[in-house]
Amino acid sequence: MTGLLVFGRTGQVATELARLAPDARFLDRASADLADPETCARAIRDSGCDAVINAAAYTAVDRAESEPDLARAVNGDAPAAMARAAAAAGIPLVHISTDYVFDGSGTAPWRETDATGPLGVYGATKLAGEQGIAAAGGQWAVLRTSWVFSAHGANFVKTMLRLGSEREELRVVADQHGGPTPAAEIAAACLTMARVMRDDRGRGGIYHFSGAPDTSWAGFAGEIMAQAGLSCRVTDIATSQYPTPARRPANSRLDCAALQRDFGLARPDWRAGLAKVLQELKT
Ligand SMILES: NC(=O)C1=CN([C@@H]2O[C@H](COP(=O)(O)OP(=O)(O)OC[C@H]3O[C@@H](n4cnc5c(N)ncnc54)[C@H](OP(=O)(O)O)[C@@H]3O)[C@@H](O)[C@H]2O)C=CC1
Ligand SMILES: Cc1cn([C@H]2C[C@H](O)[C@@H](COP(=O)(O)OP(=O)(O)O[C@H]3O[C@@H](C)C(=O)[C@@H](O)[C@H]3O)O2)c(=O)[nH]c1=O
Ligand SMILES: [Mg+2]
Prior knowledge:
The chain is an alpha/beta fold. The protein has one domain: Rossmann fold (3-Layer(aba) Sandwich), CATH 3.40.50. The protein has helices spanning 12-20, 37-47, 68-89, 121-136, 156-166, 183-199, 217-228, 257-263, 270-282, and strands at residues 4-7, 25-27, 51-54, 93-98, 140-145, 148-149, 169-173, 177-178, 181-182, 205-208, 215-216, 233-237. The chain has a 6-stranded parallel β-sheet, sandwiched between helices. Strands 6-9 form a two-stranded parallel ribbon. Helix 1 (12-20) crosses helix 6 (183-199), helix 5 (156-166) packs across helix 7 and helix 7 packs across helix 9. The chain is globular and about 55 Å long. The model has no long low-confidence stretch (mean pLDDT 97). It binds NADPH dihydro-nicotinamide-adenine-dinucleotide phosphate, dtdp-4-keto-L-rhamnose and magnesium ion (MG). Dtdp-4-keto-L-rhamnose (TDO) binds next to helix 5 and strand 7.
């Protein structure tokens, strides 16, 4: 996609965007530090691009609890500044957000219109980003996704492969439920949305997108061990048995019907995405 500007170059989703849209311009931390929102706005103003995707974020969920100011600048203030600059330039912004904006109550898949209630700093700062974007008033889309994995960068799959080859047993929480999502599918969805929005200025809003079927982290871990041929046993535990600095939602299930209806994008099967990632890690 020519005329596309992407914030982020090294992350999971940015890496997949670079594969799918090699003509786009990618800004790494050295070119646009999200800790400095004005730099991001200027990058958009100076770019002459006709669409923007923000694939950069502060994603260290536990560390965010002790770095709330930095997390807020990167996840909250920078996306808001991007949205104001994009609105002024008359171009669409596609931004990625998270299931962690929800409090995780109940068992029903979350809809876009449901009340948010983040449990930790990461989720709260991502929610601030969503709100800042909506307040900017231009043409924007926020794609909320969950449990992202790929062959690149740090993610649950790579952690499980490493620990699973070192240990006979792993204890993994079985009472947090959601949809693992391949980064490649998120990149493809963002590109589709950016194209559609560029051609139809009436489109945008908040949308949910996650892999299917819903599972638990323990279920995800079990499938990783099985597909990778690792004999490591996965034992179900409760969240209370795995203390972490940040609280995480028990129910991260996302209702993805609106994205299917408005953009024709269906939930991808994460098990097929996992097979591709394992193949890629082998080569
Ligand atoms: N990972 C997940 O499980 C989920 C992610 N998301 C959202 O999806 C989006 C993409 O996430 P993902 O690809 O996994 O992210 P990664 O954690 O893989 O990568 C984060 C990216 O953001 C960049 N970045 C971080 N801080 C700054 C900064 N101050 N200035 C410039 N760049 C910065 C990193 O650059 P550098 O290499 O220099 O650090 C890196 O390129 C994010 O909005 C995230 O919130 C949503 C749900 C789940
Ligand atoms: C390593 C490990 C983790 N866990 C638990 C902790 C946690 O509840 C769950 C997943 O661990 P992670 O550290 O990958 O989780 P986390 O970093 O919170 O993953 C989140 O990242 C952010 C960026 C998002 O937006 C979310 O959608 C989600 O993907 O598994 C175990 O139970 N056993 C283990 O051995
Ligand atoms: Mg993590």
